[in-house]
Amino acid sequence: MPILFGVILLDLIGFGIVIPILPFMSPELGADKIDIALIIVTYAACAGISGPFWGRLSDRLGRKPVIMICLAGAAVSYGLLAMASVLWMIFAARAFAGVMAGNLGVASAMMSDLTPPENRARGMGLIGAAFGLGLMLGPLLGGVLAGDNGSFTLPCLVAGLMSLLAIIAAALFLPESVTAERRAASHRQHRDGSGQPLFTMLRETGNRMLVFQFLLHAAAVSSLTYLVPLWLGDLLDWRAREVGMVFGVQGAIIVLLQGGLLGVLVRFVGEWRLLRICILIFLCGLALAVFARTTGWMLSAIFLAMSGASLCMPLLNTITSYRIPAVFRGRMLGTTSSASSWGRVAGPLLAGVNLALFGYTGAWLGCVFIVLVYLTWALTAEPSLRRASPGTPES
């Protein structure tokens, strides 16, 4: 678990470096706000297409080689981004990065392999803590490397270096979590065609609506991530350095919540009740953003919304891992990762259109509507999530 945490952390620091960079890098090459949304959508759409593939491949070949392949792809994509001199090159770099973005789904499947059910939420919280640290250290590093002059080549190269370091760490220290027997079973199903089609598997395990919540969650979070740099830039005249510091502080909060408090909260409250509370906190932060116009209220809205949202994903992953046979775990978590990617397609597009038509008030209200649907499901769907899944859920 600590080794997996370290590998994913290195990768996510590189991912985090470009978060405060792209909204300011792209306009220098002629992009407007809609173009920035389309750049985010390009990455997410490619990740949505490739996510189930990486999950299935990790069931057949093992988690470790797939993680290393995806890390190599990330390193190449950052190098392409560093060389971007016209707008289409940014689109191409982010499209390739999306195709290779299978790590989080595969890492979640590996963490599920490594943890017994009673410690699963804590293990998923470690993945979330790695994301939080990456969100803290990456944007801070990206903002510092960009400097006052807004140089973007160096941050992109350093992001690529972080992925290369993660490959080395994985090669040297990361063990394989999928047993030879499970890999052989997955190979047999692939070879003789006995494996269930994806939609059949989701229907028979009762997980179709659960997968849809990954899409809703990601749509809301990606809308938030898209809007925050533009919001702070337009209303407060902040640049990459200041935006990076905001994400850095939020990353520290996420580390505290997911790395320290999540396991304790799950023991006292339970996964399902805690998920409802976190979605409600997410909703309150977005509702506050609708009315916030001063620095203090704007930052409060950002931190409240992101803190609530950050705890939802490990809880959703934990619930998902309980509801799928181990032999399909990579495939299922690859599917939920793909659903999240399609949410990251829909979110920035919706936010970008709302921003162009109705300003920031309309854009934030669109986010509020998405999370209201998400909360409605959480308040009404508990019985269906407690049905037993076909097959053996753990092995």
UniProtKB/TrEMBL annotation:
Keywords: Membrane, Transmembrane, Transmembrane helix, Transport. Its main location: membrane. It is a multi-pass membrane protein. The chain crosses the membrane at residues 7-24, 36-54, 66-90, 96-114, 126-146, 152-174, 210-232, 244-266, 273-291, 297-320, 357-377. It is found in: Membrane. The keyword Transmembrane helix applies. Residues 1-384 form the Major facilitator superfamily (MFS) profile domain. One of its GO terms (molecular function) is transmembrane transporter activity. GO terms for cellular component: membrane. This is MFS transporter. It comes from Kineobactrum sediminis.
